[in-house]
Amino acid sequence: MSATRTRRTRSKETIDDYLLSEHQLEEMYYHMLLARRLNERMLAMNRQGRAPFVIAGAGQEAAQVGAAMALRKGVDYVAPYYRDLGVNLVLGMTAREAMLNLLGKRDDPNGHGKQMPAHWGHRERTVVTQSSVVTTQFLHATGIALAAKLRKDPIVVLTSCGEGSTSKGDFHEALNFSAVHKLPVIFFVENNGYAITESTEKSLPVENVADRARGYGIQSAVVDGMDCVAVYQTVRPSVDQARNGGGPYLIEARCYRLWPHSSDDDDTRYRPKKELEEWIKKDPLTLFRARVETDGIFPKEDLDEIEQRVAEEVRDAAQWAMMQPDPEPEDALTFVYKELD
Amino acid sequence: MAMMTVVEAVRSTLDEEMARDDRIFLLGEDVEAGGVFRATDGLHAKYGERVIDSPLAESSIIGISIGAAHYGLRPVAEIQFADFIHSGFDQLCSEASRWSYRTNGDSFLPMVVRAPWGGGVHGGQHHSQSIEAYYAHMPGIKVVAPAFPADFRSLLKAAIADPNPVLFLEHKRIYRLIKQEMEGAPAETQLSKARVTRKGSDLTIFAYGFMLHESLGAAETLSGEGIDCTVVDLLTLNPLDKETILESAKATGKVLIVHEDTLTGGLGGEIAAIIAEHAFEYLDAPIRRLAGPDVPSMPYHHAMEEFFMPNREKIAAAARELAAY
């Protein structure tokens, strides 16, 4: 990474060892913005009848981008969940690939038209293939970490989920096993306030998801998930600690699902309007932009330039992806079993 | 090679494979102490951290094996009793089975899940069950259930070498009941191949696991009565060896399918359907199934347990009726 001059950010959680370069700050903003604009275009394509289904991460971009930037690309493994477009963009997914994925195109590297949109997976980028069943990936992450420990490979595995998923058995089995074996896993919970229609108090009898970690002797932290810098500065030390044999860590990023659950959901049925309005004021993109402008890190023109670049990239990706080949119907029969070469 | 029981064949094969390939590791409840059936006896002392006791949480045993296999290791997981595997159903059927499918073969899972199964051991409802049909229904998983020590050895090796998830079923009743001289014994080395274990012209009995031995016993009895049976050891239950099934069905014209799993939705239905679809003109009698009765599970008391289980007498009786048709 071509670090230029570094400067202290004004995040409350600033940790002196984890300052970000301007280059990294720009990368942060670019990926958050790209995730949001892609999701907006995807929803528009859904409304135009071009895409059957969209499930997005609006409101969670800061959490996703901040966490992913704390990892070593292509070395550390990630077992994400469906809202993690931002994570995947940081790890190398292109806007064009994101659009192939939306449309279930043949060449979508995630699911090849066999998976619903937003079901990620890319072996070379060390992103683990995922299903729609929530929290199963926590155990896959634990298994990867166990394997790496057996092979003495200094890698870290980050796995993520929403707060709703933390009620499932696999969540608890993964925390338990990883703590017993002191495995290098970061459990990253994006607490966005809702599991479809259910607000957190319906599934969480404790104040924080992070409180659940205590029962397993796992260190945990709660971080403002709308603040990308704060997320990075919380995840990064936990990643370094895990890499050095410090064991698992649970981080709860408090963010907010700004959109309905999916393109098929009407959130006005269950979400108080006032609550949404309050959270819109904390939109991670608005906050980030305001801060870097106020701090004088980037002039307004630079930020506008990034905005234009992203808009062009999204436009190109959508148009390009629509022209790409669909799978053949008979492709439904392929790769049921892996054949040995 | 010497005489070996089934459990000795499993243990010695795990030992041999672990010595050959240091990517192989064992994960399961009590495996460090050798396991409740002693199938991993001595392996922890020999291989140390590659034999790992798991907490009592079956979903984690399978889910963690998935992660480790994805990373490139060769997990051989043990579910202590097949009856307890269902809390890992999601990990096997929603995840492991589709790893290759949903990535177009880019990712795949060379993993084995071993599970002692079956009844006749006074195990009651939750230490006696036949669980194969649930998993044999799932494309993407291979399900293997051998009957002879030599096949346990060769097919466990094949399962470990396979790049797909394999559920390897070890019938508890035959762990120490069946012994075999390993030298020169027939041993299937490929998954998805059935074997004609005994050849006769009057009818074919299809079976697997403990029931294969009971079927061979019945065939022996019947040969004294002038009824010659072919007995096919299915060996792999998913994918089934349709070719061998159809060849035998066509050659004898009469078919008896035996399993101790309950009747409805059991593998017998699938085998019968394959034969009915593709060998209808060759049949000289209706296809007959002999299976456990449609009750939730095997009851504990020995009188009810014996009533539940098919055995060589019941198989012989069903075969006699079929031969006379």
Describe this structure as you would to a colleague.
The complex is a heterodimer of chains A (341) and B (325). Chain A is α/β, with parallel strands linked by helices and 341 residues long. Helix content of chain A is 41%, strand content 11%. Chain A has 11 helices and 9 strands. Chain A is globular, with a radius of gyration of 19 Å. Chain B has 325 residues and is α/β, with parallel strands linked by helices. Chain B contains 12 helices and 14 strands. A 7-stranded mixed sheet of chain B has the order 3-2-4-5-7-6-12, sandwiched between helices. The mean pLDDT of chain B is 98. The interface between A and B is large, with 42 and 45 residues.
Keywords:
heterodimer, A: 341 residues, 11 helices, 9 strands, B: 325 residues, alpha/beta, five-stranded mixed β-sheet, globular
Helices and strands in order, then pairings?
The complex is a heterodimer of chains A (341) and B (325).
Chain A: E1 6-7, E2 20-21, H1 22-47, H2 61-68, E3 77-79, H3 85-90, H4 95-103, H5 136-151, E4 157-162, H6 169-180, E5 185-191, E6 194-195, E7 198-199, H7 210-214, E8 219-224, H8 228-243, E9 249-254, H9 273-280, H10 284-294, H11 300-322
Parallel strand pairs in A: 3-4, 4-5, 5-9, 8-9
Antiparallel strand pairs in A: 1-2, 6-7
Chain B: E1 3-5, H1 6-20, E2 24-28, H2 43-47, E3 51-53, H3 58-71, E4 74-78, H4 89-95, H5 99-102, E5 112-117, H6 132-136, E6 142-144, H7 149-161, E7 166-171, E8 179-181, E9 195-198, E10 203-207, H8 210-223, E11 229-233, E12 236-238, H9 242-252, E13 255-262, H10 267-278, E14 288-292, H11 302-308, H12 312-324
